[in-house]
Amino acid sequence: MHFFDSFPDDVPTAPLVTLSLNKLVAEDAEEKARFFEASKSLGFFYLDMRGCAEGEELLDGANDMFDLMEEFYGLPVEEKLKYDFAAQGSYFGYKGIGAEVIDGKGTKDKNEIYNISKDDLLSLSDRIPAPDVINNNRKGSASYVQANNKILTTLFSSLASSLKLPASSFTDLHRIASSSGCHIRFIRAPPQPISERSLSLGEHTDFGSLTILFNRIGGLQVLLPGTSDWVYVRPMPGCAIINLGDAMVKFSAGILRSNLHRVVAPPGRQEDMVRYSLVYFSRPEHEVKMRRLEGGLVDAIEHNGADEVEESTKDWLKRRHQGRKVQFFKGKESWEGAMGTEARL
Ligand SMILES: O=C(O)CCC(=O)C(=O)O
Ligand SMILES: [Fe+2]
After folding, report:
1. Start and end of every Fe2OG dioxygenase domain (predicted)?
2. What per-residue confidence (pLDDT) applies to 324?
3. Which atom of ligand 1 is closest in space to residue 219's alpha carbon?
4. Ligand 1 site-directed mutation target among 46, 112, 215, 263, most atoms within 8 Å of CB
5. What is the pLDDT of residue 164?
6. Residue 169 in contact with residue 305, Cβ under 8 Å?
7. For labelling, which of 24, 76, 113, 330 has a CA lying 20 to 30 Å from the CA of 301?
8. What is the DSSP letter of 180?
9. Residue 280, phi-psi category: left (phi > 0), alpha (psi -120 to 50), beta (remainder)
10. Residue 164: count of CB within 10 angstroms of its CB
11. How far is the CA of 99 from the centre of ligand 1 (A)?
12. Relative to the CA of 243, which ligand 1 atom is closest?
């Protein structure tokens, strides 16, 4: 596929390890150890989905979702804006270019986003209005949620066992039929004229637990720990890019890492391409408290003041996402107030 081949060879890239889903499903001890190490050191890795039934299902689903995303973004902007529910405080639906700030100075973002709620797709909440292209594919989108969930179950169980916690420690906080902020995200960024280039998506850590991301062209960058070097994550065929979010940091009292990342214009000859990106965000159930778990390796970590602050997942999400919206932005302080665990860096 031309997407992957067109990524340049002469830009600095992040040294993500590639883990095999097949081996993690088989509970291969060495692979589990590599997974734990990647989750502590960088919090980003590739997961090779190929040659594994669950992985192939996810890859097929992701291809369908990319088609759906292109169809959705092909709608006229007035039509898409009908599904912008930010004024009602909703996280789901459409966000036009420039509706969010990407830094403490108030610079506007450069991408369109459409968020589709897991609870809506699985009929666990009221139906959120959506255009026909999206409504006509509810079944396919719900299957995509289920396919992500299968992979997440494998990953959560593996991490719990590496932390010497009961195997269901994380899956019990992420039951698919419980109300949560899990969602599919479609992102579209048009090419940026060289003279006006800025970030498409500002630096952040993800709010939730685990993020399953599919990129076809470059633009995603991670900040290498302990440096000021932003380097590209090269998209790899057959692989998802997985990263840990702040909830995993909280649950593990900082053993696991959520790393800062951002999106810039695609590199080299990809600069003229429209960038589409597909994300599935898993988040703890709404009522789960964002606090350290008890037991296993977590108990060996000393307590600090941050442990005493208990916010429910629902309140945490609200604080984090409102601080990024243009209408709530009041300067550097409101920006920093929306920080999660990245503020500790
Ligand atoms: O588009 C990407 O590659 C990353 C998007 C992202 O980091 C996010 O939506 O949280
Ligand atoms: Fe992210």
Report:
1. 178-284
2. 62
3. 3
4. 263
5. 98
6. no
7. 24
8. B
9. beta
10. 13
11. 16
12. 7
Q: Please choose from 279, 320, 342 the residue to mutate so as to test ligand 1's pocket, defined by most ligand atoms within 8 A of CB.
A: 279
pLDDT tens digits, one per residue of 155-201: 999 999 999 999 999 999 999 999 999 999 999 999 988 877 888 88
Structure tokens at 23: 């081996």
Query: Letter for the amino acid at 208?
Result: G
Q: What is the number of alpha carbons within 13 Å of residue 275 lying toward its C-beta?
A: 31
This prediction's pTM? 0.93
3-state secondary structure of 302: coil
Distance CA(159)–CA(142), nearest Å, equals 26
CA dist., res. 78 & res. 110, Å (int): 18
Which domains are assigned to the chain? 4-316 (2.60.120.330)
Dihedral Cα 145, 146, 148, 151, nearest 10 deg: 170
72 in Cβ contact with 134 (< 8 Å): yes
Contact 255, 40 (CB under 8 A): yes
For residues 343 and 143, what is the distance between their CA atoms, to the nearest angstrom?
36
Ligand in closest contact with the CA of 213: 1
Q: Is the CB of 263 under 6 A from ligand 1?
A: yes
Residue recorded with tokens 């139906």 = 127
Q: Complex ipTM, two decimals? A: 0.99
Cβ atoms of 41 and 297 within 8 Å: the answer is: no
Side chain identity, residue 223: L
- The confidence score (pLDDT) of residue 105 equals 84
Ligand sitting nearest the alpha carbon of 233:
1
pLDDT tens digits, one per residue of 21-69: 999 999 999 999 999 999 999 999 999 999 999 999 999 999 999 999 9
pLDDT score for 343: 43
Ligand 1 atom showing the smallest separation from residue 275 Cα? 1
Residue having the nearest C-alpha atom to atom 4 of ligand 1? 220
